[in-house]
From TrEMBL:
Residues 305-320 have a biased composition (Low complexity). The lineage of its organism: Eukaryota, Viridiplantae, Streptophyta, Embryophyta, Tracheophyta. InterPro entries: Ankyrin_rpt, Ankyrin_rpt-contain_sf, PGG_dom. The chain crosses the membrane at residues 273-291. It comes from Gossypium australe. Coiled coil: none annotated. Keywords: Membrane, Transmembrane, Transmembrane helix. This is Ankyrin repeat-containing protein. Residues 269-312 form the PGG domain.
Amino acid sequence: MDDQLRTVAQNGDIDALYRRVAEDPYILDRIDRLPIADTPLHQAARSGKPHFAMEVANLKPSLSSKLNHMGLSPLHLALQNNCSHMVRGLITINSKLIRVKGKGMITPLHYVAEIDEADVSAEFLFACPSSIEDTTVKFETAVHIAVKNRSIRALKVLLGWLNRVNKEDILNWKDEDGNTALHIAVVKYLVKHVNVNVKNSNGMTAMDTFHLQGTMQNLEIGKILSSARAKTASNLTSNMTLRDYLNRKLTLIDIRDKYLGIYSRNNRSDIRAMVLVVAILIVTATYQAGLNPPGGYWQDNHKPATTNNGSSSANNTNTSLGQDQRPHYAGQFGRFWLL
């Protein structure tokens, strides 16, 4: 489309359109020969010029189903720009435009189901009943799309139509993940009304179960769980009450924090890690000292040899133990750290 014709379409100047066609009778034919093109109809849809669009559609009907470089037909663009007069005008000229598949094989009916346009959905169904059978590249029907986007008003229209034309079997059609619209509806309802982070008897949440499915994972259910802020059990914050906290036994971390004077629970992880390393070094050194005390100290289980007169000969000192004396506990401090 040349710049002159584009300007004419932007202004919606019908007289200028006919003058341009008179000057170049094949101008619309050349546009039509292109497999993908931005036509005067596309420009009219963006500019909100329904009368101009209908004139072009009347002169060259085939341009009405042409896709532009964004994968959109003039009817798709008219819907996106809320140009309802152009939408109704185009489907009056050719109701089969409702079945034109744009990018992702999305039809105008799929689009109105997504944005919950109940009135337009009803008009589309009456104008082109077979459009209810169209599926996207993901094998989704308009019902699938309405359910996934919680388009309640449009969904009621679609279900009412299926009931009246006796095509309820479409509800059993499956998308690429093997889900019918009912499957998706049930999952979305449950996610909305239940706690998605409740653990089962094995301590697993719904997200844990989803991850365990491996290659059998249903990606749509995964997306729904993620949007509902579902978490794995390991990522859940503790629901422990103050009573539970005080009743439980001290962990090794608690003992470490207690004797190193770390009371804040909001310390940065790197600081806590550094303190842990220092604590381990202290424990190791103390443990070694307990097992191998320096000269002049005995092990806990040391029994000094006695001489003939009953006195201890250890270290040749006067440190013999009497009957009322107890052995020292040089390794006791090290054992404490190992508890």
